[in-house]
Amino acid sequence: xxxxxxALVLGGYVNGYSIIQExxxxxxxxxxxxxxxxELASYSNKIxxxxxxxxxxxxxxxxxxxxxxxxxKIIIFPTDDLQLENLHNIYPEIHSFCFLPFNPENLxxxxxxxxxxxxxxxxxxxxxxxxxxxxxxxLENIKTIPFPILLKPNKxxxxxxxxxxxxxxxxxxxxEKAKKNIEGHLESGIKFLASEIIPGDGSCIYAYVGxxxxxGRILNExxxxxxxxxxxxxxxxxxxxxxxxxxxxxxxxxxxxxMDIKGxxxxxxxxxxxxxxxxxxxxxxxxxxxxxxxxxSGVDLHYSQYLDALxxxxxxxxxxxxxxxxxxxxxxxxxxxxxxxxxxxxxxKNIIESxxxxxxxxxxxxxxxxxKDSTDIVRSxxxxxxxALRIAG
Length: 393
Prior knowledge:
single chain, alpha/beta, Rossmann fold, Dna Ligase, domain 1, D-amino Acid Aminotransferase, Chain A, domain 1, seven-stranded mixed β-sheet, five-stranded parallel β-sheet, 24% strand
């Protein structure tokens, strides 16, 4: 017997599990998980089933069509850029029975970070001084930006091939060492952005997160900031809070509306104390690792998408700002403690200096994902210890 609808979460890491938590808390029972491997969310008791897929659009299309035999409508929640590209690739074959949270007309364009910066230029939204590298000869132009420089592909390439997500270049000597590697990637067709590094650590990162429907209306939104990142200041979420100034909200709205972005999107900004501006780092067009902060501070973006997909009313929600809420990923915080000198003070501050502190993945009624994640921490620590012993020996 075919059921009416289901929520399909793509990817079972922290962001995927947070989506599952939110939807389950809103009494959604038909939650399906697709993943490239058995990540932590695949152990959850909140999902109906887990399906293993590979990273090709054909695999994704095959399993979605198989799922359609069970459900009339499938509401999809992607968690990485490759999933977005694969969904875009198979859009004509599945859009009649799937709700796809993006604008098919401009998705690939909007994923390009250089295009994102070009919109900033037109809209007056601050962004770092940046140049585009398309061929080997462009490497000479890097000298127009003062060191240190952050180099990153204009689109996420590390999900499909062996390449760095970002590379910090401190000086000319660093550039010379990395030159051959960069030239090889340029010759293979990868484009790079070389940007000035805005001073400040991971606590200077702010985000606007909104859900914009197919009619171009932002139905719900929230803002927050990172308290720390892992493994360094150019890494990913480790701890976050619901703090952010109005300027971040205004700039985020401007970008989503002007670029005609649909679905859940997250413009991320870094505060530059030199000119007191919040400068765009990138726009993520899917759910990130710390999107649970929205739910914890009163804004249910994933449930908003679910209701909108079914044509139901989405009530506007006001984010809680009168108390300080912290959200931590303990695995990353512990690793920061191990890797970074004098991190204990930051660690304690992230846990203690709040009105509420919540931990990613931990749910005493659904403990297996947390145990899986904790086991990974122990295994990683043992592996690194053995490597250190081998080096010492």
